[in-house]
């Protein structure tokens, strides 16, 4: 004897289980990886097991399950793309031994730092403050804007202008 909670779930779960191979293939075409597609279908199984299919007609179950898998695969793909965007080092960097600083690199770094310091000194006080607070201290632009009594958009432009100015000075380009 089934309780009323599982009676509505059986057709939806059965549709997912019966069409698993096609669902994995659909997810793999979006994620680009069979093992990730398996994970997506597993996530769909967990999601479907918590749902009720009472409002769905029998012929709509398959489309509904495929839509769930497709949406989960797209979400998974977007998450992977975002993670790849923010990964700083790759496996080659992890396997490479750390390089000791040589006198030449130390001198070059000091010259670059001196150029940046000189470039920052050329900026208006407010622009320099916004840049240092954002890039060095990690303060949010909206908080800097509130402190300076300007809009966050203006702070964004000040930080951008300061960065461009510093880059030009480090590269030895003339400032306009």
Detailed description of the structure:
The protein is mainly alpha-helical. It is built from 10 helices and no strands. It has helices at 4-7, 9-18, 20-31, 34-49, 61-86, 91-95, 103-122, 125-136, 141-148, 152-171. α2 (9-18) packs antiparallel against α4. The N and C termini lie far apart (82 Å). Mean pLDDT is 82; it is low at 1-8.
In brief, what are we looking at here?
With 176 residues, this protein is an all-alpha fold. The chain contains ten helices and no strands.
Task: List the main descriptive attributes of the protein structure presented here.
176 residues, mainly alpha, Arc Repressor Mutant, subunit A, 10 helices
Would you spell out the secondary-structure blueprint of this structure?
Layout: H1 4-7, H2 9-18, H3 20-31, H4 34-49, H5 61-86, H6 91-95, H7 103-122, H8 125-136, H9 141-148, H10 152-171
Helix segment count? Answer: 10
Structural class estimated from helices and strands: mainly alpha
Q: Mind describing the biggest β-sheet?
A: none
Task: Compute the average pLDDT.
Answer: 82
- The helicity comes to over 70%
Bin the strand percentage: under 5%
Q: How many β-strand stretches?
A: 0
Radius of gyration: 28 Å
Distance between the termini: 82 Å
């Amino acid at each position: 004897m089934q309780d009323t909670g599982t009676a509505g779930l059986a057709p939806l779960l059965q549709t997912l289980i019966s069409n698993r191979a096609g669902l994995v293939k659909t997810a793999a075409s979006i994620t680009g990886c069979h093992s990730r597609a398996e994970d997506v279908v597993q996530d769909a199984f967990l999601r479907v097991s918590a749902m009720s299919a009472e409002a769905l007609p029998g012929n709509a179950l398959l489309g509904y399950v495929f839509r769930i898998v497709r949406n989960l695969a797209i979400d998974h793909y977007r998450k992977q793309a975002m993670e790849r965007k923010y990964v700083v080092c790759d496996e080659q960097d992890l396997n490479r031994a750390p390089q000791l600083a040589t006198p030449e690199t130390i001198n070059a770094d000091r010259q670059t730092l001196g150029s940046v310091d000189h470039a920052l000194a050329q900026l208006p006080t407010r622009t320099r403050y916004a840049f240092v607070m954002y890039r060095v201290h990690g303060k949010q632009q909206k908080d800097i804007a509130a402190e300076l009594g300007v809009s966050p958009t203006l702070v964004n432009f000040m930080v951008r202008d300061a960065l461009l100015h510093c880059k030009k000075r480090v590269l030895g380009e003339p400032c306009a």
